[in-house]
Design a protein that fits this description.
The protein is mainly α. The chain contains 10 helices and no strands. The protein folds into 2 domains: 2-69; 88-179, Arc Repressor Mutant, subunit A, CATH 1.10.10.60. It is elongated.
Amino acid sequence: MKKCINHITGKHILSYGVGVEQHFKLLIREGLLKKEHVELNSKLLLLQLLIEVSRALKQNSKNIINININNNRHEKLAWDIAEYLSENLNCKVTLADLGEKFRLNPRYLDRIFKLVMGVPIIQYQQRLKVDKSKKLLKNHGLSILDVSMELDFPSSQYFSHIFKKNTGMTPSEYRKTMG
């Protein structure tokens, strides 16, 4: 019994709830102390412990269901944001704009988006714009300034910086490799 007690840590018991912890401690005390009717008392305490564990597990399963529901909502929200960004590549879309559109706190949106998509919203938006700019750069009739303006970058220098950060080459270098 002592070996089992030493093996089960308080951390595991605490994760099931206070009632479980109290019953477990009573069971341990009863098992360690040599009182009269220890066997009957221990069985009663064990039964109470099992009831508490069962209740705690039932509650935890409800929490798991709620977490899964939230994950589905979060995934839908992230994909809705991604779709909106994709449809609005030619516009400046800020986190504040997204917060208004989706009626949620912008920082919360960014956290959820990063959790689902693996990158913050702005980084995702930049990648979309860089992918679109690659297609536009293949058209030699458009200057780098035209491409940066088409995708609503504040300047061609900023566009070049973001492009290089995402591809490892400047827009001019990319265009030459396509040439």
